[in-house]
């Protein structure tokens, strides 16, 4: 159970160390190129969809190439859609013939993914959708259709158990699509216990449905709410980077605009935007995590889209040089740095991640109370001269040209853990406004006139 103050158990430390995971949305829906929800969103005919799904045979799927790309891109783990809302299974489930193993490909894609990614040294995550749009009983629920519901519930539980017993160690499990059911219908609590028995180290997300017994009051009554307040090991802000105070968290984000699986002709977010999301997660994180699960929707024939690869590798190259500011870092929000970029900390170091380079030789960093030992432009390895005046750090000798197209990073090594002062702790919009009044009074007087004097 989650408490406000928690320490991350040893066997979950890999997650905060990792910071950066690759989300993979891939299934027969990729053939349509209109998102993973095309069946429902366009109200397609199920029979036609199933025929096309069953004929799907992605000839270029090469999981080792995916894994090698993921490693080069700096991802430390991945999460693969084993079954999305359309119900098609990407493994050889004993409970259905609607799978990649029993239809055209005759391949267990989950096994291939797990083997290749594990061999490449990545941690393994599996995505699994509760909802299956084909099953009326899922929507009717246990009250209207007790028998039908029981079949669905045991189908779901059995499949999850399959996934956790066939493929060796699973590190991360991402439930999705819980609406309109809740944790009590799904018996999530019982399933969770079983999952932990099968995979003692596993991290399970919070999309387990509202639980009347475990969750507190919720304004929406929990009906249709996908997330549990208390169940699950990590929070999953989607398209958002918001801190979950109660547990580890991982923001899931698309590299395109809105949809998760491959979309024909979609726009792509630029590499600096994607990297900024990673830095934002690290900055907002800390002991409670702050990971980015960055998505790719491979093409129907099984390839990572070149637009994705190009961006991912650019970020990977950046991480090779600047990774110490991200992997295993603690959160930032220390000095007053919002004007220039983001910041993280690790041990005695403060990392300034600079969004844009203005070409000036000096930079002032306000509100650093610690004594500084050394300042390094991590991007080039160059030692930078500096001076401390009160709580202001002046960094000097900065090159006129930006040292990288992405974000240059300056490492500030302090004598102890980097500390800030009251301004840094309270930030601009928090704390006692008397502090700002005092500053205004001492700096500029009391009136609206240019000289600050009363008339
Ligand atoms: C949503 C969507 C789904 C996607 C998921 C990723 O809940 O229903 O299509 O897989 O988010 O977090």
From TrEMBL:
The record marks 252 as: May be important for catalysis. Its EC number is 3.2.1.51. One of its GO terms (biological process) is glycoside catabolic process. It is an enzyme of class 3 (hydrolase). Residues 12-324 form the Glycoside hydrolase family 29 N-terminal domain. One of its GO terms (cellular component) is lysosome. Keywords: Glycosidase, Hydrolase, Signal. The keyword Hydrolase applies. The keyword Zinc does not apply. GO terms for molecular function: alpha-L-fucosidase activity. Belongs to the glycosyl hydrolase 29 family. Alpha-L-fucosidase is responsible for hydrolyzing the alpha-1,6-linked fucose joined to the reducing-end N-acetylglucosamine of the carbohydrate moieties of glycoproteins. This is alpha-L-fucosidase. It comes from Paenibacillus albidus.
